[in-house]
Inverse folding.
């Protein structure tokens, strides 16, 4: 089992020139950055997400023992959405 940082998240941010810039960042860093920008302590975020207070620390430090469903609760509390991309699925729904 790998660390959370092994899974990269892609997101788009509008730059100063109104241009979308693709950024890649670890899930740990994304959670920590959003928590801090929201002005939330780890304890308060855990309370909002309905998880134990050590869970936020574990996520922010890339612990692999955090369940996917628990990470999803934290992401939902921060209004972060995950986009799953699979090479086996095609947006055009073509069958080959």
């Amino acid at each position: 089992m790998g660390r959370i940082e092994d899974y990269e998240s892609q997101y788009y941010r509008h730059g100063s020139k109104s241009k979308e810039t693709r950024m890649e960042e670890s899930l740990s860093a994304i959670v920590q950055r959003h928590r801090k920008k929201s002005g939330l302590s780890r304890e308060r975020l855990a309370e909002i997400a309905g998880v134990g207070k050590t869970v936020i620390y574990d996520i922010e430090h890339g612990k692999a023992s955090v369940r996917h469903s628990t990470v999803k609760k934290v992401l939902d509390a921060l209004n972060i959405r995950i986009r799953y991309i699979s090479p086996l699925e095609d947006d055009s729904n073509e069958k080959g």
